[in-house]
Amino acid sequence: MSSPSRPVSTEAHDDCVLPFAVDPLDLRGRLVRLGPTVNAIVSHYDYPPPVARLLGEATALTALLGALLESHGRFQLQTRSDGPVDMLVVDYEAPGHLRGFARFDLERINQLDDVSSDLLMGRGHLALTIEREEDAARYQGVVQLEGVNLAQAAHVYFRQSEQIPSYVRLAVGEVITPHGRFWRAGGLLLQHLPSGAARVQDLPPGDAPPDFVDVRDENENWTEGATLAATLEDHELIDPNLSGETILYRLFHERGVKVFAERAVTEFCRCSQSRVENLLRSFSKQERMEMVGDDGVIGVTCEFCAAHRSFNPELFDE
C-alpha cells in the first residue's frame, strides 16, 4: 500500500473509499461510505425500494473494487440473469466517477413474497471487468449467480480468480433527515495478504515466561480478522454520523489499524450531446429514420442518468 498513513479523524466523510491495514494480522482492506453519490444513482429512475437497495449494493461493491485503479482505467460490474432484476450495470472510471442503472420487471417483483437480492437476480452470471488505459489491457472475471447475493458472489470471485482470502460486507438503507429521506450505502473489503509462512507476535502474552515465542499460523490470522470483520453491523456502515476511522477502530483496535489517504468518489455520467450524436452517425440513414418518433425527431434517453436528448434527423444529412 503506497499511500501515506494519516492521523485518525472522528469526522464522518461521505462518498469516499478509505484504505486501511492491520499489519499484525497481514490484513489489507478498504471501507466505502456513500451518501449523495448513491442517492443520485438510485434516484434517476423510480426504482422500487428492493431494486434501489440492490443497485446501491452493486454501487458500493463497484466502488470497493474499482478503487484499485488509482488514476486511469475503468471497472465495470454487470449482471445478466433471469430474475425480476435481469440486469445491473455499474461503472467506475478512475479516479472516482460512478454511474449505474438496473433493469427490472415490476410485475414480477410485486409477485415475490421475499425480495432478497438473490431472488431478485435469480440465475445468471456476474461479470467484473477491468480496462486499463496505460497498456490497453482488459481483464474479466465471471461468477455464476444462483442463490447468492452480490457479497457472496464477490467471495466466489476472489476465491476463483485471485485466490486471496477475502471478506465482503455490503449495506444499503434509507435515512430520514430534516430535509427528507435519502439512500446511503457502505461496504467493507478485507483481504489476507501474508508476508511469510508464519508471524511472530511483537509482544508475548502477559502470563507467558520471558523466553516464550508464539508463532501464529497464517490461517489463524485470517480467521481472527474475518471474525472481527463479521461483527460489523449494517447500521454502522450507513450511519452518517459515524466516521470510517471509528468503524475500523471498533473492529481492529486490539491489533492496531492504520488508515491511508481517502479516495473521493462521485456520481458522474459520461454521456453528452456530442457522444450521442456521434453514436447516431454510426447508423445508416435507414436505421436512423426508423428511430424517428411521432414528433419528427430522434429521441435518446441515457440508461444511466436518464438524460433525454432530441436530434433533428436532417442534422445527419449535412
Description:
By secondary structure, the protein is α+β, with helices and mostly antiparallel strands. The chain folds into two domains: 16-198 and 216-267, Hsp33 domain, CATH 3.55.30; 273-317, CBS domain Like (Alpha-Beta Complex), CATH 3.90.1280. Helices cover 29% and strands 32% of the residues. It has helices at residues 36-43, 49-66, 106-110, 117-121, 150-162, 218-229, 234-238, 244-252, 273-281, 285-291, and strands at 16-22, 27-34, 74-81, 85-93, 97-104, 124-132, 137-145, 166-177, 180-192, 198-200, 215-217, 258-259, 263-264, 266-267, 298-301, 308-311. Strands 1, 2, 8, 9, 12 and 13 form a six-stranded antiparallel beta sheet that branches. Strands 7-6-3-4-5-14 form a six-stranded mixed beta sheet. A hairpin with a 4-residue loop joins strand 6 and strand 7 (137-145). It is globular. It starts with 15 loop residues before the first strand and ends in a 7-residue tail after the last strand. The model is unreliable at 196-216 (pLDDT under 50).
Features:
single chain, 318 residues, alpha+beta, Hsp33 domain, CBS domain Like, 2 domains, 6-stranded antiparallel beta sheet, 6-stranded mixed beta sheet, 10 helices, 16 strands, 29% helix
